[in-house]
């Protein structure tokens, strides 16, 4: 009656899916930073859960990103490769998200 | 009382339930992006509403039995009447509003199942409920799902931080997770619209069939789909500020990397389970992943009191809404007078709850003024020692 195998399959599938998507996106961000284009995305609004970001602090963040970009040990080719790698990671992530939508809509796979 | 009048009443109540469902569940998808500042609260809630509306249209495959076999209806089983569905819905709605007022994330699907089970036991008898199915489809998943998704979110968060680590003094680009959060939380909202609006469509279709308005075995009619989609979307837009407070702020301070890991785990688990025909509560999955991802951060500890409060809400949902559904069914059995008593009592409880809610009103404007809920995960600030040691690490 109780389908224990289904529990295992659900747990395994969700672990695999999350690990793949999160790793890809993180790797994309990492490569983007390596390529000297670290993303600085300031919060859209301030709720209690986030530390208040003063303009001074935001400027400091941007400066850090520039510093990371300038003090980059990679060669031009390596940087370009990292950028290509970053974008490929993001594309794969988009693919994974679209696969999620595909799974939601039964009309697409039946 | 006219037979069609009760059908109309049930449809109206089902839509009210759909509304409270959306109202209750906005936070599942949108608490973490609001907490990390990935989206403004108004934008997040608007997006969730639109995606719930779209999601309701994406899939029109309603399970043949709305309760997933929990109540032995259909051929050779018991005859479920509109009165019983009516009583079950009243139980579910009242419980949904009570948990909303207390700011607890509790499962709307469990409230619906509980209400229907209670109403069926009183209205028909103990034999009307298939307890094996209740155990296999409701109770066990309720115990296992939050734990597994918590572990998944924990691993995903650790991975996200591990991959993006940099020596200090340099930008790590983790703010970039805010962009990803917009998509991951949208996926959660979309799958919510698909799953939860279906349940109400199923209830209405079941009622129409029981009332002899629609032929047995046919799917939901277009107007049913449209009104259900609208009800859940309006509910999503209107509501949930209290629960957003509990999940996005009361539970844990959420960082972008962590929020993205949590939402991805939630979406992956919901998709995997619905793909394998396995009923999971969106709310429990979302709460489990928020806690798991919080623990994945450095220096995290659990606030057991708050965790216990949430777990209590989960455990209570099924029996509490069952008791309410049972009470409502007791009155409904009296006939037309009972239905009127039910409606009056139900509206009285709802009115009282709303009056209490008004007294301590929470909207997106004063969202961060109120702080009474503790947090499950306590994050210690990173000690400087570790920061200095990290500086020596050469990153790619």
Supply database-style keywords:
heterodimer; A: 110 residues; mainly alpha; 73% helix; 0% strand; elongated; B: 396 residues; two-stranded antiparallel ribbon; 13 helices
Description of the structure:
Chain A has one domain. Chain A is built from four helices and no strands. In chain A, α1 runs antiparallel to α3. By secondary structure, chain A is an all-alpha fold. Chain B is an all-alpha fold and 396 residues long. In chain B, α1 runs parallel beside α8, α1 runs antiparallel to α9 and α6 packs parallel to α9. The C terminus of chain B is likely disordered. At the A-B interface, α1, α2 and α3 of A face α1, α2, α5, α6 and α9 of B.
SSE order and pairing:
The complex is a heterodimer of chains A (110) and B (396).
Chain A: H1 4-34, H2 55-70, H3 76-104, H4 106-109
Helix pairs in contact in A: 1-3
Chain B: H1 3-36, H2 41-58, H3 82-102, H4 108-123, H5 131-163, H6 177-210, H7 222-238, H8 241-251, H9 256-275, H10 282-295, E1 300-302, H11 304-332, H12 336-359, E2 377-379, H13 384-391
Antiparallel strand pairs in B: 1-2
Quick overview:
With 110 residues, chain A is an all-alpha fold. Chain A is built from 4 helices and no strands. Chain A has helices at residues 4-34, 55-70, 76-104, 106-109.
Could you tell me the number of beta strands of chain A? Answer: 0
Tell me, briefly, the overall form of chain B. elongated
Which sequence of SSEs, written as H and E, runs from N to C of chain A?
A: HHHH
Number of discrete helical segments of chain A: 4
Number of helices of chain B: 13
Compute the CA-based radius of gyration of chain B: 22 Å
Query: What is the total domain count of chain B?
Result: 1
Segments of chain B where pLDDT lies below 50 for 5+ residues?
363-375, 383-396
- Low-confidence stretches of chain A at least 5 residues in length (pLDDT < 50)? none
Mind telling me the C-alpha Rg of chain A?
20 Å
Overall number of strands of chain B: 2
Largest interface: A-B, 53 and 76 residues
**Span of the ends, CA to CA of chain A:** 27 Å
User: Structural class of the secondary structure composition of chain A?
Assistant: mainly alpha
How do the SSEs of chain B run, as a string of H and E?
A: HHHHHHHHHHEHHEH
Strand proportion of chain A, as a percent range, falls in under 5%
Strands of the widest sheet of chain B, in order across it, are: 1-2
What is the percentage of strand-forming residues of chain B?
under 5%
Main pleated-sheet profile of chain A: none
What's the multimeric state? heterodimer
Total count of domains of chain A: 1
């Amino acid at each position: 009656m109780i389908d224990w195998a289904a529990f295992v399959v659900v747990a395994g599938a969700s672990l695999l899916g999350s690990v793949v998507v999160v790793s890809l996106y993180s790797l994309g961000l990492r490569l983007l930073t390596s390529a000297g284009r670290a993303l600085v995305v300031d919060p859209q609004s301030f709720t209690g859960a986030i530390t208040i970001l003063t303009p001074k602090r935001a400027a400091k963040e941007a400066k850090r990103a520039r510093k990371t970009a300038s003090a980059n040990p990679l060669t031009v080719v390596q940087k370009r490769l990292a950028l290509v790698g970053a974008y490929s990671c993001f594309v794969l992530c988009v693919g994974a998200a679209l696969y999620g939508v595909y799974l939601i809509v039964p009309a697409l796979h039946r | 009382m006219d037979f069609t009048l009760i059908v109309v009443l049930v449809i109206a109540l089902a839509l009210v339930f759909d509304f409270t469902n959306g109202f209750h569940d906005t936070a599942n998808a949108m608490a973490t992006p609001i907490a990390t500042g990935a989206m403004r609260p108004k934008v997040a809630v608007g997006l969730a509403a639109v995606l719930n509306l779209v999601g309701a249209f994406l899939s029109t495959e309603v399970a043949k039995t709305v309760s997933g076999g929990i109540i032995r209806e259909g051929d050779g089983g018991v005859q479920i009447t509109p009165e019983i569905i009516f009583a079950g819905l009243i139980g579910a709605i009242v419980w949904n509003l009570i948990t909303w007022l207390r700011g607890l994330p509790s499962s709307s699907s469990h409230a619906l199942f509980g209400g229907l089970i209670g109403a069926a036991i009183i209205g028909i008898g103990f034999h009307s409920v298939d307890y094996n199915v209740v155990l296999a489809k409701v109770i066990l998943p309720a115990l296992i799902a939050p734990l597994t998704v918590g572990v998944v979110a924990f691993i995903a968060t650790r991975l996200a931080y591990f991959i993006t680590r940099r020596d200090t003094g340099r930008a790590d680009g983790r703010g970039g997770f805010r962009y990803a959060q917009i998509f991951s939380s949208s996926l959660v909202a979309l799958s919510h619209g698909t799953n939860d609006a279906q349940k109400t469509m199923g209830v209405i279709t079941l009622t129409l069939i029981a009332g002899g308005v629609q032929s047995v075995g046919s799917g939901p009619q277009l107007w049913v789909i449209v009104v259900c989609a609208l009800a859940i979307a309006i509910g999503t837009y209107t509501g949930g500020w209290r629960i957003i407070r509990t999940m996005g702020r009361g539970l844990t301070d959420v960082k972008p990397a962590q929020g993205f890991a949590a939402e991805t785990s939630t979406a992956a688990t919901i998709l995997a389970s619905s793909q394998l025909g396995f009923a999971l509560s969106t709310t429990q999955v979302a709460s489990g992943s928020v806690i798991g991802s919080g623990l994945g951060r450095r220096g995290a500890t659990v606030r057991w009191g708050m965790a216990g409060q949430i777990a209590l809400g989960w455990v209570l949902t099924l029996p509490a809404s069952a008791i309410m559904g049972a009470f409502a069914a007791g009155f409904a059995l009296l006939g037309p007078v009972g239905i009127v008593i039910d409606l009056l009592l139900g509206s009285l409880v709802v009115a009282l709850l709303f009056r209490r809610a008004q007294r301590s009103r929470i909207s997106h404007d004063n969202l961060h003024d109120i702080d009474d809920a503790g947090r499950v995960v306590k994050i210690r600030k990173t000690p400087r020692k570790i920061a200095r040691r990290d500086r020596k690490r050469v990153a790619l």
